[in-house]
C-alpha cells in the first residue's frame, strides 16, 4: 500500500480537505489549538462588529478584514486536513484489503466450525488453506506455507511462514498461497496489526508529542502576551486620544500571534508519520518519530545491515609446496554439494583459476559429506581421496595434528583481517586456507561519516569474535562494535548507553530481541519477525530492511527541523507586521510618524489589510514545506543551525516586508477596490 | 561623539573584560559552601557563628521549594523590618534633623523598593530619611537584596550544572557567604576609595551656607493659619521670596554609595543621586561607579562558564550582553550628541548636543554611558535626568529596562534573567538542529518552557498592565508633569522601572501619591518575587534532569551564531512586547520632534 507515493496535491485529497476544513471551524474542535482558537474568536468579533457602525471605518474595510481572518483560520484547518487526508487515502487503500472473511475455527473436540473473522478472539485456533485470506493476526503453530503479504508490504514476492522460530507471525489481511497452516490468533478484532496501521496512518489515535506540547505552551504564552499588548494598547490609545477600533485591534492581534506555526504544527507532525509510511515504516506513535530525531546511538546488526549477509570466498592461500590451482581444485571438489552461500562462492572463486565447471552429476562415485553441527566440516570422498573443509580446529581434529607453521600463520592473518578461515585438508595433509570475507555494503562508510558529524555513534552488533568484529567495524567506518553478542548483551548495552544519557535505536526480528526492542528508544521490528518482536518495538519496517534505521533517524530529524524552522520563521515575521500596522494605527493622530512606514504602504487601511492578507496567505504557501519537510542535510549541529537560521530566521525577517509590500501594490491596481 | 568618548568607552569595556575572570574565579569560591578564600582566617569564625546563632545546618542542602520558602520568608521579614523603621523613624536615634515618620503608603513603597533591590525613591533622601533609616533600614537591604539576587543566580547555575540532583544549594549559606566574603570586603575598600575622591562620610547635622548670588522666587502667599490665600477669582496670591542661604545635606554617604553601586541598588543618598557633587565628586569616581555596577554581573558570566564546564558558553553570554550594551550606549550617545534640532536651529548649544538635565561636569558621553549602564543593570542610580534626554536617548534606558535588565543586569538578577532568555532561545531555535531542544546536557521540556514563559509573562503583565491602567485613570495622570507622548513615556518608565526593579525614574512623574506609591510598590514586589519563583522552579527541574551527553549534534551554545541568536531573541521578544507602547511614547515623540515643531 504505502509503496504508492501520493502526489503532494492529489486532487481528491484537496477536495476532501476543503470539506474537512469547514468542519474543523467548530469552536470546540478549535480549542485544541489555542493560537488558532484566538484567531477564530478574533474573526467572530470582527464579523459581529460589521453589524454595528464604527465611526471612521468603512464597512468595506471591516468586511475585508473579517473575511481574511476567517481565511486564516480556514487555511490552518486546511493544512491539517491535507496532512490527515494523505493519511486517510492510505488508510482507505488498506481497508480495501479487508474483505469479510470466514474463518475455520477449530473446536476443542478437533472439529472445525465456520465463523466470521470478526468473531475470532485471542487464543482461537484457525486453519487456513491455500488461496484463503488469513482472518486475523496470529502465530503459525503447525505447518509451513507461502504467504502473499503484498497487502501490507507492497512486495509481490511471497514469503515463507512456518511454525516455531522467528518466521511464525502472520498478519490478518494477507493471503496463503500454498499449503495449509494452523494459526493461533493473537489479537482481538479492532486490535490487529492492520487495525492499528489504519488508525495510525489516519491520525485517529494521534496524540501530541512531548515536544509539541512544550511548543504549544510557548505559543499559547506568546498569544497571551499579545492579548495583553493589544488590550493595553487600547488604553494607551485612549490616553493619547485615539480610539482604536475592534477591527484594527483584532487585525493586529491575529498578525502578531504565531498563526503560521500554530496553523501548521499538527500538519508537520502528521506529515512526519506519513513520510515514514511512504518508506514502508509504521511508527506506533508520533513520540517514536520525535525520539528518532534525538537518537545518538545506532545499534546495527552486522548481518544484513552492514554486510551483504553472507561471507564470500575471496582468496586461496596454499600450504607450502602446493600451487594455488591445486588448492582451488580440492576446495571446489569439497564444495560442490555445499549449497550454502559460502560454499557456492568457493566454487565461483575456483573458476577464476581456470578450473572448468564440474557438476555433481558427472561424479556418480563421489560420496559427499554434509556439514553437521557435530563435525563442523563438509567435504567429499572420491577416488580414494578424502577431502574436507571446515573451521580450523575441526580440521585440526580431523588430521590429528597441528598445522604446519605457514598455514597456522595464514589462519591468524585471515582472522586478524576480520575474515574467516576455512582449512582444506586431504586425509592428514593440510592443503591450504580459504579466506572467507564479509562484504560490507557500498556507501555505508560515507553515511556513517556523516552520522558522526551529526553526533550519532554507530555500534555494530555481531556474534562474531572480537577480531573479526573489529576488522569489519573498521572497514564499515563504525565507531564501536559489540562482539560475541548474545541478546542479553544487547539489552545490557542499551541500558548502559541510556544510563549515560544516550538515546538508542536498534532493529530486531527474533523473539529474543523483544526485550532489547522494548528497551530501546526507537525499536524497529522487522515485519518478517515474530509477533513478540513487533509488539515490543515502536516501529515496524514492512520491507524488513534493517538499513532503513538510518532513514528513520533522518526523517525524525527532518520533522524536528521543519517544526523549528517554521517556528523561527513565524516569530521573525512579526517585526515586519509591526512596521506595517503600527504607523497605520497612529498616523491619524500623529501624521509625523509617516517615516516609520518604511515600506511606503499606500494607506493605513491598505497597510493593515496587506498585513492580514500576508498572514493568511503565508500559511497556504508553507503547506507544501510543512508536508514535505525541510530538506535534510547531514551536517553538524553548528552548521545546521547557521544554515537554517539564515534561511528561516533572516528569511522570516525579510520575507514579510517584501510580501506585504507586494500585496499592498497589488491591491492598488485591483479594479474593485 | 568625540574621541574622548570613544577612548573612555574602550577603556570601560576593556577594564570590564579584564576584571571578569578574576571576579568570576572569586565568585566560584564564595558560592561554593566549602570554598576557601583568602579571607577565611578572619571571616570563617564569623560565618560559623552566624550558622550557630540561626541554627543552620550548612551541610544539608535545600531543594528548590525549601530554597524558595527560605528566600521568601527572609524577604518578608526584611520588608516588615524596614517598614517599621520608616514608620517609627521619629522615635529612633541618629535623626539630627528631627525628621518625622513616613506615611503608610510611602513607607510601604520604600520598604518594597529596597527589599526588591529596586531602590525606587518616592522620597527625597536628605529631606525625608534619618541617618538611622538610611543606614539600618535601607543599607541593610542594599546588602541582603543584592546577596539574594546572587544566590538565586547561583542556584539556577547549579540547577543547570547538576544532573539527577535534588538540591540546588543552601539559601542561608549563600546569603551569609555572599555578604561576608564578597560584598562587605569590597565595599569597605570601595567606600575608602570614594572618600579619597571627596565623598562625605559623617553624622553631622546639615550645614547652612550663604549663596553667592541671592535670588528671588514667586511662592504662594499663606495666611496666618497656614492656608494658601486666594484672590477674588480663586487664583492663588503670590508673593516674592528671597533666597540667600542654602542647606547642604550631610551624612554617612560613602558607605551607602559603595553598596548602592556594587549591589546594583541605585538608591541615592541624596535626591540628586550620582549627579550630586558629594555623591559623585570626580570623573574617576564617576568611572569607577559605573564599572562597579557591572563588576559582579560580569563576573557571574564567567562563574556560569566554569560551573557548567563550558567556558565558551560563559563568554558567549558575556558577548551577547556586550553587544546589547554597546548598541544601547551608541544609540543613546549619538541621540544626545545630535541634540534637539529645534534648539540647534536657534543657535543654542550647538556643539554640546542635548545638555538639558545633564550635569555639566559629566557632559554628553558620561551621561549617556551612565544612563545605559544603570538601566542595563537594575541599578537605577542616575547622574543625569533621563526625562530630559532626547526621545531616542530616553528610549534606550526605557528599552533596557523592558528587556528585563539582562545586559549584565542586576547582581544575579541579570544572569538569571538572561538564562531564562537562553532557555527560550534554545527552545525556539533548538529544533533547527534536528533534535528536541537541549541546553548544556539538559533536555528542555514542557515544564521548563512553562516556568520560563511564566517569568516573561509576569514582566509583560505587570509593566503593561499597570501602565495601561494608570494611563486611563485620573490618579495615574495626576502625577504627570507632561501630557502627550512624553507623559506616556514617563508612566511607562515608572512601571517598567518598578517591575524591572531598576529604581531610576524618568523624573517627570511626581510619584509620591498614595495611589502611585501603592501600585508601584506592588509592581516592584511582582517584578521581583513572581519572577523569582518560576526561576527557582526552573533551577529545581533542571537539576533533576538526566545528563544528555554533548556531541557534534548538540545545540551549540557558544560562538557567533549563538550570540546572534540570543541577541535576536532578547531584542525580538522584548521589542514584540513593548514596541506598540513605545511607538506611542518615545518613538512618536522622536518623529514629532524631527518632523514638526512640537516639543513635549
Structure description:
The complex is a heterodimer of chains A (673) and B (600). Chain A is built from 23 helices and 22 strands. Chain A is of the alpha+beta class. In chain A, the strands form 4 sheets. A 7-stranded mixed β-sheet of chain A has the order 10-22-21-20-11-18-19, with helices on both faces. In chain A, α3 packs antiparallel against α8. The longest helix of chain A is centred in the C-terminal third of the chain and has 39 residues, at 548-586. Chain B has 600 residues and is mainly α. Among the domains of chain B are: 23-200 and 258-287, no CATH class; 207-248, no CATH class. Chain B is 61% helix and 5% strand. Chain B has helices spanning 3-30, 40-53, 64-87, 104-115, 125-128, 131-161, 171-196, 253-262, 283-307, 311-338, 341-345, 363-376, 391-402, 413-430, 446-471, 474-478, 484-499, 514-544, 559-595; strands at 207-220, 238-248, 438-439, 442-443. In chain B, the strands form 2 sheets. In chain B, strands 1-2 form a two-stranded antiparallel ribbon. In chain B, strands 3-4 form a two-stranded antiparallel ribbon. Chain B is globular and about 80 Å long. The interface between A and B is large, with 73 and 68 residues.
Task: Indicate the topology.
The complex is a heterodimer of chains A (673) and B (600).
Chain A: H1 11-23, H2 27-30, H3 34-49, H4 59-96, E1 102-106, E2 112-116, E3 125-128, E4 138-142, E5 144-148, H5 150-153, E6 159-162, E7 169-170, E8 175-178, E9 181-185, H6 193-202, H7 210-240, H8 246-256, H9 259-278, E10 281-283, H10 286-294, E11 297-301, H11 302-306, E12 307-318, H12 324-335, H13 341-351, E13 367-369, E14 377-382, E15 385-390, H14 392-399, H15 405-416, E16 420-426, E17 429-440, H16 444-453, E18 457-461, H17 466-476, E19 480-482, H18 487-499, E20 504-508, H19 514-519, E21 522-526, H20 531-536, E22 539-541, H21 548-586, H22 604-628, H23 637-669
Parallel strand pairs in A: 11-18, 11-20, 18-19, 20-21, 21-22
Antiparallel strand pairs in A: 1-2, 1-3, 3-9, 4-7, 4-9, 5-6, 5-8, 10-22, 12-17, 13-14, 14-15, 15-16, 16-17
Helix pairs in contact in A: 1-4, 3-4, 3-8, 4-6, 4-8, 4-9, 4-22, 7-8, 8-21, 8-22, 9-21, 9-22, 10-21, 12-13, 21-22, 21-23, 22-23
Chain B: H1 3-30, H2 40-53, H3 64-87, H4 104-115, H5 125-128, H6 131-161, H7 171-196, E1 207-220, E2 238-248, H8 253-262, H9 283-307, H10 311-338, H11 341-345, H12 363-376, H13 391-402, H14 413-430, E3 438-439, E4 442-443, H15 446-471, H16 474-478, H17 484-499, H18 514-544, H19 559-595
Antiparallel strand pairs in B: 1-2, 3-4
Amino acid at each position: 500500500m504505502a509503496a504508492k507515493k501520493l502526489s503532494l496535491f492529489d486532487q481528491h485529497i484537496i477536495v476532501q480537505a476543503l470539506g474537512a476544513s469547514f468542519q474543523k471551524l467548530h469552536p470546540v474542535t478549535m480549542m485544541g489549538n489555542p493560537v488558532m482558537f484566538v484567531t477564530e474568536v478574533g474573526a467572530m468579533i470582527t464579523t459581529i462588529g460589521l453589524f454595528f457602525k464604527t465611526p471612521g471605518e468603512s464597512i468595506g474595510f471591516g468586511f475585508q478584514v473579517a473575511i481574511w481572518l476567517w481565511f486564516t483560520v480556514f487555511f490552518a484547518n486546511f493544512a491539517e486536513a491535507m496532512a490527515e487526508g494523505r493519511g486517510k487515502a492510505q488508510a482507505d487503500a488498506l481497508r480495501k484489503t479487508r474483505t469479510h472473511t470466514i474463518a475455520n475455527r477449530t473446536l476443542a473436540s478437533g472439529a472445525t466450525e465456520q465463523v466470521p473473522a470478526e468473531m475470532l478472539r485471542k487464543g482461537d485456533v484457525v486453519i487456513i488453506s491455500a488461496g484463503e485470506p488469513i482472518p486475523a493476526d496470529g502465530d503459525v503453530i503447525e505447518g509451513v506455507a507461502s504467504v502473499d503479504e503484498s497487502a501490507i508490504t507492497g512486495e509481490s514476492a511471497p514469503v515463507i511462514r512456518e511454525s516455531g522460530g522467528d518466521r511464525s507471525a502472520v498478519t490478518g489481511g494477507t493471503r496463503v498461497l500454498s499449503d495449509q497452516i494452523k494459526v493461533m490468533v493473537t489479537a482481538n478484532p479492532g486490535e490487529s496489526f492492520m487495525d492499528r496501521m489504519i488508525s495510525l496512518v489516519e491520525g485517529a489515535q494521534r496524540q501530541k508529542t512531548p515536544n509539541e506540547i512544550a511548543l504549544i505552551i510557548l505559543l499559547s504564552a506568546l498569544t497571551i502576551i499579545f492579548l495583553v499588548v493589544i488590550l493595553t494598547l487600547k488604553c494607551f490609545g485612549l490616553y493619547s486620544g485615539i480610539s482604536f477600533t475592534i477591527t484594527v485591534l483584532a487585525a493586529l492581534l491575529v498578525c502578531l500571534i504565531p498563526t503560521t506555526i500554530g496553523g501548521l504544527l499538527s500538519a508537520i507532525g502528521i506529515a512526519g508519520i506519513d513520510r515514514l509510511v511512504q518508506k514502508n515504516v509504521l511508527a506506533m506513535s508520533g513520540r517514536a518519530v520525535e525520539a528518532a530525531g534525538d537518537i545518538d546511538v545506532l545499534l546495527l546488526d552486522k548481518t544484513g545491515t552492514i554486510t551483504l549477509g553472507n561471507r564470500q570466498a575471496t582468496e586461496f592461500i596454499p600450504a607450502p609446496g602446493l600451487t594455488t590451482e591445486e588448492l582451488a581444485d580440492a576446495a571446489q571438489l569439497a564444495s560442490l554439494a555445499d549449497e550454502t552461500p559460502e560454499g557456492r562462492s568457493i566454487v565461483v572463486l575456483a573458476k577464476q583459476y581456470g578450473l572448468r565447471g564440474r557438476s555433481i552429476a558427472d561424479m556418480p562415485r563421489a560420496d559427499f559429506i554434509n556439514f553437521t553441527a557435530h563435525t563442523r566440516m563438509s567435504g567429499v570422498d572420491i577416488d580414494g581421496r578424502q577431502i574436507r573443509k571446515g573451521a580450523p580446529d575441526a580440521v585440526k581434529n580431523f588430521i590429528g595434528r597441528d598445522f604446519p607453521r605457514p598455514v597456522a600463520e595464514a589462519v591468524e592473518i585471515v582472522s586478524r583481517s576480520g575474515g574467516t578461515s576455512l582449512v582444506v585438508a586431504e586425509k592428514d595433509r593440510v592443503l591450504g586456507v580459504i579466506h572467507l570475507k564479509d562484504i560490507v555494503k557500498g556507501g555505508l562508510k560515507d553515511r556513517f561519516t556523516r552520522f558522526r558529524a551529526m553526533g550519532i555513534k554507530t555500534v555494530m552488533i555481531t556474534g562474531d569474535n572480537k577480531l573479526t568484529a573489529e576488522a569489519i567495524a573498521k572497514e564499515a567506518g563504525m565507531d564501536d562494535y559489540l562482539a560475541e553478542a548474545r541478546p542479553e548483551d544487547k539489552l545490557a548495552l542499551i541500558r548502559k548507553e541510556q544510563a549515560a544519557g544516550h538515546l538508542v535505536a536498534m532493529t530486531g526480528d527474533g523473539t529474543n530481541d523483544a526485550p532489547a526492542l522494548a528497551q530501546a528508544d526507537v525499536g524497529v521490528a522487522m515485519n518478517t519477525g515474530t509477533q513478540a518482536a513487533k509488539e515490543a518495538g515502536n516501529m515496524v519496517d514492512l520491507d524488513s530492511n534493517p538499513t532503513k534505521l538510518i532513514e528513520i533517524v533522518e526523517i525524525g530529524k527532518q520533522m524536528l527541523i521543519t517544526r523549528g524552522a517554521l517556528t523561527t520563521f513565524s516569530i521573525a515575521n512579526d517585526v515586519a507586521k509591526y512596521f506595517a500596522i503600527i504607523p497605520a494605527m497612529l498616523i491619524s493622530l500623529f501624521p509625523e510618524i509617516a517615516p516609520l512606514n518604511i515600506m511606503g504602504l499606500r494607506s493605513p487601511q491598505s497597510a493593515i489589510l496587506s498585513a492580514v492578507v500576508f498572514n493568511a496567505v503565508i500559511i497556504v504557501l508553507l503547506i507544501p514545506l510543512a508536508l514535505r519537510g525541510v530538506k535534510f542535510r547531514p551536517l553538524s549541529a553548528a552548521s545546521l543551525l547557521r544554515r537554517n537560521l539564515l534561511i528561516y530566521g533572516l528569511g522570516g525577517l525579510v520575507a514579510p516586508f517584501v510580501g506585504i509590500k507586494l500585496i499592498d501594490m497589488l491591491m492598488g491596481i485591483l479594479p474593485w477596490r | 561623539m568625540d574621541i574622548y568618548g570613544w577612548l573612555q568607552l574602550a577603556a570601560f569595556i576593556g577594564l570590564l573584560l579584564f576584571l571578569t575572570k578574576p571576579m568570576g574565579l572569586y565568585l566560584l569560591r564564595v558560592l561554593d559552601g566549602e570554598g576557601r578564600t583568602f579571607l577565611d582566617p578572619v571571616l570563617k569564625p564569623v560565618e560559623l557563628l552566624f550558622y550557630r546563632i540561626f541554627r543552620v545546618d550548612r551541610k544539608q542542602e535545600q531543594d528548590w521549594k525549601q530554597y524558595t520558602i527560605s528566600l521568601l520568608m527572609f524577604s518578608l521579614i526584611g520588608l516588615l523590618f524596614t517598614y517599621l523603621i520608616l514608620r517609627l523613624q521619629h522615635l529612633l536615634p541618629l535623626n539630627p534633623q528631627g525628621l518625622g515618620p513616613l506615611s503608610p503608603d510611602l513607607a510601604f513603597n520604600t520598604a518594597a523598593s529596597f527589599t526588591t533591590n529596586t531602590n525606587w525613591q518616592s522620597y527625597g533622601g536628605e529631606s525625608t530619611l534619618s541617618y538611622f533609616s538610611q543606614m539600618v533600614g535601607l543599607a541593610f537591604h542594599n546588602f541582603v537584596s543584592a546577596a539574594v539576587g546572587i544566590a538565586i543566580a547561583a542556584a539556577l547555575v547549579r540547577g543547570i550544572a547538576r544532573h539527577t540532583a535534588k538540591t540546588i544549594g543552601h539559601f542561608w549559606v549563600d546569603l551569609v557567604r555572599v555578604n561576608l566574603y564578597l560584598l562587605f570586603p569590597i565595599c569597605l575598600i570601595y567606600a575608602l576609595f570614594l572618600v579619597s575622591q571627596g565623598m562625605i562620610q559623617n553624622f553631622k547635622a546639615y550645614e547652612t551656607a550663604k549663596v553667592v548670588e541671592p535670588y528671588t522666587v514667586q511662592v504662594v502667599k499663606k495666611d496666618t493659619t497656614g492656608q494658601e490665600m486666594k484672590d477674588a477669582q480663586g487664583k492663588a496670591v503670590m508673593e516674592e521670596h528671597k533666597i540667600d542661604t542654602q542647606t547642604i545635606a550631610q551624612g554617612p554617604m560613602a558607605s551607602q554609595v559603595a553598596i548602592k553601586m556594587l549591589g546594583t541598588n541605585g538608591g541615592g543618598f541624596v535626591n540628586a543621586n550620582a549627579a550630586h557633587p558629594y555623591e559623585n565628586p570626580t570623573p574617576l569616581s564617576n568611572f569607577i561607579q559605573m564599572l562597579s555596577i557591572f563588576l559582579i554581573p560580569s563576573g557571574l558570566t564567567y562563574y556560569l562558564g566554569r560551573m557548567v564546564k563550558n567556558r565558551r558558553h560563559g563568554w558567549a553570554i558575556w558577548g551577547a550582553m556586550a553587544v546589547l550594551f554597546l548598541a544601547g550606549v551608541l544609540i543613546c550617545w549619538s541621540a544626545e550628541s545630535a541634540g534637539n534640532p529645534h534648539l540647534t536651529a536657534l543657535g543654542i548649544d550647538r556643539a554640546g548636543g542635548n545638555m538639558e538635565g545633564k550635569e555639566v561636569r559629566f557632559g554628553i558621553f558620561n551621561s549617556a554611558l551612565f544612563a545605559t549602564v544603570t538601566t542595563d543593570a537594575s541599578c537605577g542610580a542616575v547622574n543625569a535626568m533621563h526625562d530630559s534626554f532626547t526621545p531616542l536617548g530616553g528610549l534606550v534606558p526605557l528599552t533596557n529596562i523592558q528587556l528585563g535588565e539582562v545586559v549584565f543586569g542586576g547582581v544575579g538578577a541579570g544572569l538569571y534573567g538572561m538564562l531564562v532568555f537562553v532557555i527560550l532561545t534554545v527552545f525556539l531555535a533548538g529544533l533547527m538542529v534536528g533534535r528536541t531542544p537541549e541546553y548544556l546536557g539538559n533536555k528542555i521540556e514542557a515544564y521548563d518552557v512553562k516556568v520560563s514563559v511564566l517569568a516573561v509573562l509576569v514582566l509583560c503583565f505587570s509593566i503593561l498592565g499597570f501602565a495601561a491602567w494608570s494611563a486611563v485613570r485620573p490618579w495615574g495622570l495626576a502625577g504627570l508633569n507632561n501630557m502627550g507622548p512624553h507623559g506616556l513615556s514617563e508612566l511607562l518608565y515608572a512601571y517598567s522601572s518598578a517591575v524591572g526593579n531598576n529604581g531610576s525614574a524618568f523624573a517627570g512623574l511626581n510619584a509620591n501619591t498614595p495611589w502611585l506609591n501603592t501600585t508601584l510598590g506592588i509592581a516592584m514586589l511582582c517584578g521581583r518575587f513572581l519572577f523569582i519563583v518560576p526561576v527557582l522552579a526552573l533551577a529545581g527541574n533542571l537539576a533533576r534532569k538526566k545528563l544528555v551527553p554533548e556531541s557534534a549534534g548538540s545545540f551549540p551554545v557558544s560562538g557567533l551564531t549563538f550570540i546572534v541568536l540570543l541577541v535576536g531573541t532578547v531584542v525580538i521578544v522584548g521589542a514584540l512586547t513593548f514596541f506598540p507602547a513605545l511607538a506611542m511614547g518615545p518613538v512618536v515623540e522622536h518623529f514629532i520632534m524631527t518632523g514638526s515643531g512640537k516639543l513635549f
